[in-house]
Amino acid sequence: MENEKPTFMQRLKKFFYKILIGVVLLLALTIWVCSWTYSEGTRAGQLIKVAKKGVIFKTFEGELNLGGLRMGDQVDALEGNIWSFSVIKEEVLDEVRKYEGKRVKLLYKQRFKSMPWQAKTNYIVVGVEAIDP
């Protein structure tokens, strides 16, 4: 009786438990990676726009003109130095909207990866300060 083989149903149950544990661990790892702050910092420039974007998931996205020019994707192409960012919190969004068209310093946290329902970019603005001209 000690060397009794497990039945097909017992093996199937054990297999599904392993799959379930694997899926739960993968989900926990994904959530951890998507909430992990990769870097923090500030960027200053003229706030160009803030808009609600998205087909399925509506998120608040903005652009900041950092000034100067940079090389574009095409040969001999120059383009403005634009930085795209996302805003998650409503109170930060209200502050950012007050300064649209003005020079500001944005405080941000860069995530390793953002979930699609949170933001389109990995740069999440957490604060804003006006820059006196």
Care to describe what's here?
- The longest helix is centred in the first third of the chain and has 28 residues.
- The chain is α+β, with helices and mostly antiparallel strands and 133 residues long.
- Helices cover 28% and strands 43% of the residues.
- It has 2 domains: 35 residues; 93 residues, OB fold (Dihydrolipoamide Acetyltransferase, E2P), CATH 2.40.50.
Secondary structure: elements and pairs:
Layout: H1 8-35, E1 37-53, E2 59-71, E3 78-87, H2 90-98, E4 103-111, E5 123-130
Parallel strand pairs: 3-5
Antiparallel strand pairs: 1-2, 1-4, 2-3, 4-5
Give a quick account of the main beta sheet: strands, pairing sense, barrel closure. Answer: 5 strands, mixed, barrel
Instruction: State mean pLDDT (0 to 100 scale).
Output: 85
CATH fold assignment of the largest domain:
OB fold (Dihydrolipoamide Acetyltransferase, E2P)
CATH class of the largest domain: Mainly Beta
Radius of gyration: 23 Å
Structural class: alpha+beta
Short account of what is shown:
With 133 residues, the chain is an alpha+beta fold. Helices cover 28% and strands 43% of the residues.
Comma- or semicolon-separated keywords:
single chain; 133 residues; alpha+beta; OB fold (Dihydrolipoamide Acetyltransferase, E2P); 2 domains; five-stranded mixed β-barrel; 2 helices; 5 strands; 43% strand
